[in-house]
C-alpha cells in the first residue's frame, strides 16, 4: 500500500521576487517565481512502515530540464533531527515515530541560483494511532485488546504479536507521551502485581514489546512491587510509588537519549507511602509537587518536583473546622485532586469507619477545611476507585453500581447506568469532544457514561465482547 500526495506548482511569470534566496551575483529585477498551492500550511498523512510518495506537478519554463532541482527536509525532535531527500518525486519508506512533523520542500532554480521554500507538515500514523487499548484480567492472566475506531476488537493482541503472554496479575495500563508533546503517545506500560515481573513496556506504534519495566531502572532491584504509577505528564516520564517509596523518571538529560525517563534511587527519607497520592501540576511546565500520605507516621507529607522529601515542613492554614494534616492518626487510602480549591482524601480507622477529609494545597501550604464521617462509607469496597472532576463531582464504584457524591451538600446518588448486575471493576475519567466522560468496566464490557451538566451517568455506548474483567483503558484520539 502506498500513500500518494499530489500538489501543483503554478508559475507567475515576470513577477518581482518576494521570497527567495539569492546565492549569485546576477543582477535582475524580475524572475519567474513558482507558487505552490495545496502544500503550504497543509498537513499530509503518512503511515509508519508504508511508502510515502509525493509527486509535485510543476508548471515552469524549465520544468522539463535539470535546471530545477528539488530537496525535501523532515524535522523531528530526536537524533538525527533531520532527514533529507532529493528528486522531483519524494519516495521513501516512512520510518518516523507517530507524531506531527515540520517539513520543507526547497526548489532551486539553477539558472539564477534562486531557492524557494515551501513549508508543510507530515502527520505520521500507524494502524494503532487511533483507538482504545483495553487491559483485562482473565482468571489472573493479563490480556491486551485493541479496539479500532469502528468498534472492531483485536483480542489478546500482545500475545499474538509477541508470542508470549503478559505478566499475570494486571494492575494498570499507562500511556506515556513524548516529552513536551502530551498528545503524542510513544509507549504503553502494562503494570503487573508480580514482584518478579512487574510489567512490560510496549511500543505504541507497533504494539510490540520494547522492554521490561525493570529495564527502566539504572540499577534494578532483584524484585519490586509497583503500588501506583502515573504517566501522561508534560515531561513524558513515569512517576509514582514503588515498594512504598517515591520514584520519578529522570528528566535531566535530553529526551531523545536512551536514559531519559529511567529510575535512579527512590526519594531519600524516613517514610512509607500509601498507594494513592496527588501529583500537582503534572500537565504543565510550571511547578510540580507531590501530596502523599506516610503510613508509617500517619500524616500527610510532601515532595517537590525533584522528589526531594519535604516531610511536614509545609505551613498549615485552616479554612474551616480543619484537621491536623501532620497528625492524621489513621490510614488514608485514597486522594483525589478536584481543582485548586478542593482535594478530597479518605481514611479508615481501626473499626472500619471511613472519614472524608477536605483540603486545598500549594507547594508550601496545606489548608485543611474539615474532617467528617463519609456519608458513602458503607458502600466502599476493597476494589472501590474514586475519580473527581474540576466541578467537584466525585464518583466511586460499589459492587454493580457507580455513585456520585457532592461534598457541598453531601448529596449521594446512584448513577442511571445499569450494568445488568455485573460488578464494576474499573472507573476512569476521559474527555471526548471537550466533555467529561466516565468510563466503566465490567466483565466482558466497557461502557461510556454521560456525566455532562444535567446528566446522571446514563450509558451512551457499550463495547461488548471483551475477554475477562476490564482493569484499565487508554484511549488514543
Describe the structure.
The protein is an all-beta fold. It has one helix and 36 strands. Strands 2, 4, 6, 7, 9 and 10 form a six-stranded mixed sheet that branches. It has a six-stranded antiparallel sheet with strand order 13-12-11-36-35-34.
Keywords summarizing the entry:
mainly beta, 6-stranded antiparallel beta sheet, 1 helix, 36 strands, 52% strand, elongated, disordered N terminus, signal, PKD-like
Brief description of this entry?
The protein has 477 residues and is an all-beta fold.
Number of helical segments with 4 or more residues: 1
The coarse silhouette is: elongated
Report the radius of gyration as a whole number of Å.
Answer: 27 Å
- Describe the main β-sheet briefly: 6 strands, mixed
What amount of the residues lies in strands? over 45%
Category from helices, strands and their pairing: mainly beta
Poorly predicted segments: 1-24
Q: Count of DSSP E strands?
A: 36
The mean pLDDT is: 89
Instruction: Report helical residue fraction.
Output: under 10%
| Distance, first to last CA | 24 Å
Explain the layout of strands and helices.
Blueprint: E1 2-15, E2 21-22, E3 31-37, E4 43-47, E5 51-58, E6 68-75, E7 82-86, E8 90-93, E9 99-109, E10 114-125, E11 131-138, E12 141-147, E13 153-154, H1 157-162, E14 170-178, E15 181-192, E16 199-203, E17 209-212, E18 226-230, E19 239-242, E20 245-248, E21 278-280, E22 289-294, E23 299-304, E24 309-311, E25 315-316, E26 331-337, E27 343-348, E28 354-362, E29 365-373, E30 386-388, E31 393-398, E32 401-406, E33 411-414, E34 426-432, E35 435-450, E36 458-476
Parallel strand pairs: 1-5, 4-10, 25-29
Antiparallel strand pairs: 1-3, 2-10, 5-8, 6-7, 6-9, 9-10, 11-12, 11-36, 12-13, 14-15, 15-16, 16-17, 18-19, 19-20, 21-22, 22-23, 23-24, 26-27, 27-28, 28-29, 30-31, 31-32, 32-33, 34-35, 35-36
Amino acid at each position: 500500500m502506498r500513500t500518494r500526495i499530489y500538489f501543483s506548482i503554478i508559475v507567475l511569470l515576470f513577477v518581482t521576487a518576494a521570497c527567495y534566496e539569492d546565492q549569485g551575483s546576477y543582477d535582475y529585477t524580475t524572475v519567474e517565481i513558482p507558487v505552490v498551492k495545496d502544500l503550504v500550511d497543509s498537513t499530509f498523512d503518512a503511515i509508519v512502515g508504508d511508502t510515502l510518495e509525493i509527486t509535485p506537478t510543476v508548471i515552469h519554463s524549465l520544468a522539463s530540464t535539470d535546471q530545477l532541482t528539488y530537496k525535501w527536509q523532515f524535522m523531528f525532535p530526536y537524533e538525527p533531527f533531520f532527514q533529507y531527500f532529493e528528486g522531483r518525486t519524494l519516495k521513501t519508506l516512512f520510518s518516523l515515530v507517530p507524531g506531527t512533523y515540520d517539513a520543507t520542500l526547497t526548489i532551486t532554480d539553477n539558472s539564477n541560483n534562486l531557492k524557494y521554500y515551501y513549508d508543510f507538515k507530515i502527520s505520521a500514523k500507524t494502524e494503532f494511532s487511533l483507538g482504545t487499548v483495553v487491559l483485562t484480567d482473565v482468571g489472573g492472566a493479563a490480556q491486551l485488546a485493541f479496539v479500532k475506531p469502528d468498534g472492531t476488537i483485536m483480542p489478546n493482541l500482545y500475545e499474538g504479536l509477541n508470542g508470549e503472554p503478559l505478566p499475570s496479575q494486571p494492575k494498570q495500563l499507562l500511556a506515556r507521551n513524548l516529552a513536551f508533546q502530551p498528545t503524542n503517545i510513544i509507549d504503553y506500560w502494562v503494570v503487573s502485581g508480580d514482584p518478579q515481573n512487574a510489567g512490560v513496556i510496549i511500543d505504541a506504534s507497533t504494539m510490540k514489546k520494547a522492554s521490561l519495566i525493570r529495564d527502566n531502572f539504572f540499577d534494578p532491584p532483584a524484585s519490586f512491587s509497583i503500588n501506583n504509577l502515573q504517566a501522561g505528564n508534560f515531561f513524558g516520564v513515569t512517576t509514582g510509588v514503588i515498594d512504598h517509596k517515591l520514584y520519578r523518571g529522570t528528566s535531566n538529560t535530553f529526551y531523545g537519549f536512551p536514559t531519559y525517563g529511567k529510575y535512579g534511587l527512590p526519594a531519600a527519607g524516613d517514610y512509607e507511602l500509601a498507594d494513592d497520592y496527588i501529583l500537582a501540576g503534572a500537565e504543565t511546565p510550571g511547578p510540580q509537587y507531590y501530596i502523599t500520605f506516610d503510613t508509617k507516621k500517619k500524616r500527610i507529607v510532601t515532595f517537590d518536583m525533584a522528589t526531594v522529601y519535604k516531610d511536614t515542613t509545609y505551613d498549615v492554614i485552616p479554612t474551616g473546622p480543619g484537621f491536623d494534616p501532620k497528625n492524621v492518626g489513621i490510614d488514608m487510602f485514597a486522594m483525589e485532586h478536584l481543582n485548586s480549591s478542593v482535594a478530597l482524601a479518605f481514611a479508615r480507622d481501626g473499626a472500619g469507619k471511613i472519614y472524608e477529609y477536605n483540603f486545598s494545597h500549594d507547594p508550601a501550604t496545606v489548608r485543611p477545611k474539615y474532617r467528617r464521617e463519609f456519608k458513602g462509607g458503607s458502600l466502599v469496597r476493597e476494589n472501590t476507585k474514586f475519580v473527581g472532576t474540576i466541578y467537584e463531582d466525585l464518583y466511586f464504584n460499589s459492587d454493580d453500581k457507580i455513585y456520585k457524591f457532592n461534598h457541598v451538600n453531601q448529596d449521594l446518588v446512584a448513577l442511571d447506568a445499569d450494568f445488568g448486575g455485573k460488578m464494576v471493576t474499573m472507573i476512569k475519567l476521559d474527555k471526548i469532544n471537550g466533555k467529561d466522560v466516565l468510563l466503566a468496566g465490567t466483565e466482558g464490557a466497557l461502557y461510556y457514561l454521560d456525566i455532562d451538566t444535567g446528566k446522571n451517568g446514563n450509558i451512551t455506548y457499550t463495547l461488548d465482547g471483551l475477554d475477562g474483567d476490564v482493569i484499565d483503558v487508554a484511549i488514543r484520539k
